[in-house]
Amino acid sequence: DAKTTQPPSMDCAEGRAANLPCNHSTISGNEYVYWYRQIHSQGPQYIIHGLKNNETNEMASLIITEDRKSSTLILPHATLRDTAVYYCIVRVRGSNYQLIWGAGTKLIIKP
Amino acid sequence: GAGVSQSPSNKVTEKGKDVELRCDPISGHTALYWYRQSLGQGLEFLIYFQGNSAPDKSGLPSDRFSAERTGGSVSTLTIQRTQQEDSAVYLCASSPRGVGGIDTQYFGPGTRLTVL
Fold first, then answer.
1. Is A103 on the interface with B (CB under 8 A)?
2. Mean pLDDT calculated for residue range B13-40
3. Average pLDDT for A70-80
């Protein structure tokens, strides 16, 4: 699976959009981009995933560049409860199991 | 519906003792995963179960670690002769694998293991 690079930490003001970048320059054509987050002392929570097209769900939007070498997770109106570590992971759809986890981005939402 | 549950939530043990960690996956999920997470680190894959297939144990760090999954549901991770470096949060996840090819993993709250 491709390796991902994320900034170790970011701040965002409450109510503003939080934009979390992820580089995955070695991604293959059949590898999906997944985002999870982990709120302190809890298990990781699935947010969103995508292949080529931008995706949106009730939690977030995922913007993938045309060359697929990077992506951005957007939380449109961040709240204090969005403070968490956000993980960007790439993997082959339907491949086995394991998600290769990096250190993620610690997102702190400030009032 | 009920999510993935794990027990105990915390376990403190002495070096050299054996421990058992339990995971109850979401009902109907065919895939089950164990990970561990050291402080401030990402998750480290340990083992994977898929239906009735033989589990993939490639992530287990040593032969002191083993896991089983009974009846395709509940799983137990066993660590024998625990060492201090085994201290970590052990996370279990399940997935409705095969549903549309999307295999989002749903995680339990984890078991925090401390080996003194």
1. yes
2. 93
3. 96
pLDDT value at residue A36: 93
Q: Which residues of B touch A103 (CB under 8 A)?
A: 40-42
B74-107 as b/e: b if 16+ CB within 10 A = ebebebeebeeebbbbbbbbbbbbeeeeebebbb
Q: Which of B72, B70, B74, B82 is nearest to B18 (CA)?
A: B82
* Chain CA centroid to CA B98, Å: 21
Rounded average pLDDT over B64-84: 94
Report the residue from B35, B59, B106 with minimal CB separation from A46.
B106
Residue A80 predicted with pLDDT over 90: yes
Three-state DSSP class for B79? strand
* Model confidence band, residue B100 (pLDDT cutoffs 50, 70, 90): very low
Among B33, B42, B107, beta carbon nearest to A97: B33
E-assigned strands of A39-104? 45-50, 55-56, 61-64, 70-75, 84-92
Residue A62 token pair: 């995922």
* Amino acid at residue number B99: V
Cα dist. B71→A62, A75, B27, B49, B75 in Å? Answer: 38, 40, 12, 12, 9
